[in-house]
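FORM 12-B: Structure-to-Sequence Request
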C-alpha cells in the first residue's frame, strides 16, 4: 500500500462517488492528494482525517479562469500535481433524453461540464506537467462512449465519446514529453450520480442482469486501476482505455 509515495495527485469531483474513493485510495497508497470539487463542504469532509497529506480546493471545471487559477495556485504552494484524475461530470436524469426529445439547455449543460470541463482540466494539467517534468493524467470515461448503452442519454453519451477521442489525441501529442494520458471506463457504478437507477428495483435489476459479474460496480472497484495508472508501473501505457465494468461491454 505504498505505490504512490512521492506523488501529488489532483482529483476532480472528489467530494463523492468514484472521485472520493480514488482520493482515499491514493492517500492510503502514500500520495499527497488535492481533493477538488464544486462543493466545498464535501471536499473538506474527505480530507479532514488525513492531516497534512491532503488539501481541498473549490473548482468548477467549466470555468477556465478558476481552473487556471487552481493550477497556478498549486504550483506556488509546492503542490503542482504529477497525477491528475479528471473525474468530475454530470448526468442529467430526467433532462437528458433520446435525441428528438433532448432540449438544447440539457445538451449544453452536459457538454459544458463533461466535455469542455474535461478539456480545460487536461489543458491546464498538461501545461503544468510540461513545466514540471511530466506526469500521468487519468480520465473517467463511460461505456456509453463505446456502445449504445446510453441510447436515452444522448448528451451524456456524446460528451463521453468526445472525451475518449480527446484523450487519444492528447496522449499521442504528448507521449514524448513524459506525459501519459489514459481513460478508465467504469461500468454501472452505484453512486449518487445514478441514484435514479439504483433506487428503482426494476431498472437496477435490468442493468445488473446484463453484467456477467452479476453485481453492480462500487466506487472502490475503480480505484485499483487508477492506482496502477498513477504509479510508475504503467510507464508505457498511454492513449488506452481501461475498462472496469464486470464484463458488461464484452457482451
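FORM 12-B RESPONSE
SEQUENCE OUT:
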Amino acid at each position: 500500500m505504498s505505490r504512490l509515495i512521492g506523488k501529488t495527485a489532483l482529483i476532480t469531483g472528489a467530494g463523492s462517488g468514484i472521485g472520493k474513493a480514488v482520493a482515499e485510495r491514493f492517500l492510503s497508497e502514500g500520495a499527497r492528494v488535492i481533493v477538488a470539487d464544486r462543493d466545498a463542504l464535501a471536499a473538506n469532509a474527505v480530507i479532514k482525517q488525513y492531516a497534512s497529506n491532503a488539501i481541498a480546493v473549490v473548482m468548477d471545471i467549466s470555468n477556465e479562469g478558476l481552473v487556471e487559477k487552481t493550477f497556478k495556485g498549486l504550483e506556488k504552494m509546492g503542490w503542482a500535481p504529477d497525477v491528475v484524475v479528471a473525474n468530475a461530470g454530470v448526468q442529467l436524469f430526467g433532462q437528458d433524453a433520446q435525441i428528438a426529445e433532448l432540449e438544447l439547455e440539457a445538451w449544453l449543460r452536459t457538454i459544458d461540464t463533461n466535455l469542455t470541463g474535461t478539456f480545460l482540466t487536461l489543458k491546464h494539467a498538461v501545461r503544468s506537467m510540461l513545466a514540471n517534468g511530466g506526469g500521468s493524467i487519468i480520465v473517467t470515461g463511460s461505456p456509453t462512449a463505446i456502445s449504445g448503452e446510453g441510447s436515452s442519454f444522448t448528451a451524456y453519451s456524446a460528451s463521453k465519446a468526445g472525451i475518449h477521442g480527446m484523450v487519444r489525441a492528447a496522449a499521442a501529442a504528448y507521449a514524448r514529453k513524459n506525459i501519459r494520458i489514459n481513460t478508465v471506463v467504469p461500468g454501472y457504478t452505484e453512486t449518487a450520480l445514478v441514484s435514479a437507477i439504483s433506487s428503482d428495483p426494476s431498472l437496477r435489476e435490468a442493468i445488473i442482469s446484463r453484467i456477467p459479474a452479476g453485481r453492480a460496480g462500487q466506487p472502490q472497484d475503480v480505484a485499483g486501476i487508477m492506482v496502477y495508472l498513477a504509479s510508475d508501473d504503467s510507464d508505457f501505457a498511454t492513449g488506452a482505455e481501461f475498462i472496469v465494468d464486470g464484463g458488461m461491454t464484452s457482451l
